[in-house]
Structure to design on (689 residues):
């Protein structure tokens, strides 16, 4: 086989990595290189260094070590049965690309994933070698996200966690049945076991021993996972139920939802239709409501009988429209929990309301200045000098927010 | 009437010092003219000398933190607005907690704009390798920020790129980091920086990480406004990526499923055997 140029490899192996949604570089320990001996820093929040025309943030150099793969997952562009061009980076190439991109301020760090070659252990240990070289030889203090290979030995995952800020492993599909059907070589049970192991190791790394010594940090930015939406027939209720379990059982920082995207050289097992991007967006909104707004899955998915979210309006608004009897709420008296349920109020707005109303009663204009979206909120609140009157219960309230019905196209 | 000259470099400390002296001496906001960056105050020496510092002046910490950011805003009114609020704080110490106070809300908005500008600077500065040899590698960048954000943001670059020398040149101020020392110098016109081969690789990455099946231009431009594009090497590809996206997706659909390569069955058999053995 002919040797590919570095730029060709980069083209193939970034093209192959773009279906991973995560690009987060936040939430790890604070580090810098002021001692002059290394390169890089992490300061809490991540930085998006660029944006592609698909609207996604580019924060990390997101590449595959190789897109050769012995598995045959139907949704994946790199599956063994696909005819895409293949390439493989050397350890040195990945290290150099990461460092040189970083020095020019293109990226926050590296997100390294890989197809499975030879065996899961062999693949994982190559990935660990890259992370180790970056940390130990190059003194790299930027962000490293490693995607664990399912079925890799626990010792390798343990070593990976010493160099990586974040580890992730994809559950791929919302149900075990879906995984069996579309990723026949992957085993949902071992994937969950790997997540459980990472959780345990993180917990252990946070505790001092009896001598007061702190063990080495283990993946300080935690772990995340990704689910493909729209490839199998799972409803949003199923997907969100699975997320809730994952957040609860494995302490995940994030669950990413990736609308199934038609891939080049696709498998006959899957639809070749444009992904319902809005569905992905609604799932993220619902995910936020579950984690930061005190909602539970049942409430969010109750608005429709088919278990899916309303695509036309955001889930919080859909819930409020279903529960109009609870509104309007008085912004000057309502509890924090209730304020968080007002459409158009975010967690920050609610914080500001609570802070300011200790000093004086709030008016409609005050809310505007605090960053509330009153277009949505005004039907659901009262404030000094503002009452929505009949608006809260008006029958056309939903129509004010939903996009106008689209005429079906003839074909 | 006091005319207070404020320098372009070190604006924050100069404003803070002047504001302390002036409130300490009870000078009303209407009696102050803030003179930023012209050097006129000093040149003609017509300015009344500032009152001596007095220790009595106290301002809430939240105000000081906000002022340290707002002074870098480009709005010429920023100093007067800050002083106006500082003046009110003497008798209304609760104002800082009132998130809906119009004056405070305006200043918070300006603070947010500066922070956003700082964030974008951290994101969008692009260094080029100067290839100068020596122990430390050296890099340089040209950047055009919306507000006066070079000085407050440079320490971030110093923490991050401590093992190399670098320069960020802007029309306003130039930040330089040499042998671990950060310094600021007057602004300059866009320097001629040498070509850097890494930019082509970065462009390759940018083009290939883009998924043509999900074009969301608005989501891109709201986070990466066009005003930054001219200094971003990857931005030259955006037009072609958008223009070619639909055709690419159509080609994918028309191509449809292909026949798996011959080696597949062999690999699958091997894998199955190994998984059964375990």
């Amino acid at each position: 086989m002919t040797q590919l140029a570095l730029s060709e490899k980069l083209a193939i192996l970034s093209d192959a990595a773009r279906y991973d949604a995560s690009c987060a570089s936040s939430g790890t320990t604070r580090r810098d290189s002021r001692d002059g001996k290394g390169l890089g820093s992490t300061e809490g929040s991540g930085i998006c260094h660029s944006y592609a025309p698909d609207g996604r943030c580019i924060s990390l150099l997101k590449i595959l070590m190789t897109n050769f793969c012995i598995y045959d997952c139907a949704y994946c562009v790199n599956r063994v049965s696909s005819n895409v061009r293949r390439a493989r980076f050397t350890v040195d190439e990945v290290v150099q690309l990461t460092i040189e991109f970083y020095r020019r301020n293109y990226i926050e760090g590296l997100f390294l994933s890989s197809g499975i070659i030879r065996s899961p252990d062999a693949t994982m240990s190559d990935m660990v070698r890259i992370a180790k070289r970056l940390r130990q030889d190059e003194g790299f203090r930027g962000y490293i996200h490693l995607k664990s290979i399912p079925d890799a030995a626990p010792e390798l995952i343990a070593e990976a966690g010493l160099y990586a800020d974040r580890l992730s492993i994809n559950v791929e599909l919302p149900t075990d049945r879906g995984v069996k059907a579309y990723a026949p070589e992957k085993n949902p049970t071992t994937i969950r076991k790997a997540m459980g192991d990472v959780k345990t190791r993180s917990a252990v790394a946070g505790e001092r021993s009896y001598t007061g010594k702190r063990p080495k940090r283990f993946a300080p930015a935690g772990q995340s996972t990704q689910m493909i939406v729209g490839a199998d027939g799972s409803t949003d209720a199923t997907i969100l139920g699975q997320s809730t379990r994952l957040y609860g059982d494995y302490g995940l920082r994030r669950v990413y939802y990736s609308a199934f995207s038609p891939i080049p050289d696709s498998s006959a097992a899957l639809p070749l239709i444009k992904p319902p991007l809005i569905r992905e967006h609604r799932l993220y909104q619902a995910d936020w409501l579950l984690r930061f707004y005190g909602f539970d899955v049942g409430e969010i998915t109750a608005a429709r009988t088919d278990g899916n979210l309303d695509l036309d309006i955001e889930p919080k608004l859909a819930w409020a429209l279903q529960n109009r009897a609870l509104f309007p709420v008085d912004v000057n008296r309502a509890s924090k929990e209730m304020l968080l349920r007002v459409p158009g109020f975010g967690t920050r707005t609610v914080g500001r309301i609570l802070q300011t109303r200790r000093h004086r009663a709030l008016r409609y204009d005050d809310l505007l200045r605090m960053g509330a979206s009153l277009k949505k909120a005004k039907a659901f609140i009262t404030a000094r000098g503002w009452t929505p009157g009949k608006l809260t219960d008006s029958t056309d309230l939903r129509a004010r927010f939903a996009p106008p019905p689209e005429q079906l196209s003839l074909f | 009437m006091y005319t207070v000259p404020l320098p372009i470099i070190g604006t924050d400390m100069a404003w803070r010092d002047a504001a302390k002296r002036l409130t300490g001496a009870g000078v009303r906001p209407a009696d102050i003219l803030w003179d930023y960056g012209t050097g006129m105050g000093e040149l003609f020496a017509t300015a009344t000398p500032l009152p001596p510092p007095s220790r009595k002046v106290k301002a809430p910490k939240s105000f000081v933190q906000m002022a340290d950011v707002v002074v870098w805003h480009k709005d010429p009114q920023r100093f007067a607005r800050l002083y106006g609020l500082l003046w009110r704080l003497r008798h209304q110490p609760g104002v800082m907690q009132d998130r809906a106070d119009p004056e405070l809300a305006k200043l918070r908005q300006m603070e947010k704009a500066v922070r956003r500008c700082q964030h974008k600077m951290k994101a969008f500065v692009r260094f080029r390798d100067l290839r100068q040899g020596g122990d430390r590698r050296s890099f340089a960048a040209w950047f055009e920020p919306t507000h006066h954000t070079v000085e407050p943001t440079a320490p971030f670059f110093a923490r991050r790129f401590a093992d190399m020398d670098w320069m960020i040149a802007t029309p306003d101020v130039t930040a330089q980091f040499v042998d671990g020392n950060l310094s600021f110098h007057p602004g300059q016109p866009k320097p001629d920086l040498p070509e850097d081969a890494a930019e082509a690789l970065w462009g390759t990455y940018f083009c290939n990480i883009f998924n043509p099946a999900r074009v969301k231009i608005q989501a891109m431009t709201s986070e990466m406004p066009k005003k930054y594009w001219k200094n971003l090497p990857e931005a030259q590809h955006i037009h072609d990526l958008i223009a070619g996206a639909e055709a690419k997706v159509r080609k994918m659909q028309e191509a449809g499923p292909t026949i798996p390569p011959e080696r597949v069955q062999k690999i699958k058999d091997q894998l199955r055997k190994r998984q059964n053995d375990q």
User: Anything to note?
Assistant: Chain B touches chain A through 76 residues (CB under 8 Å).
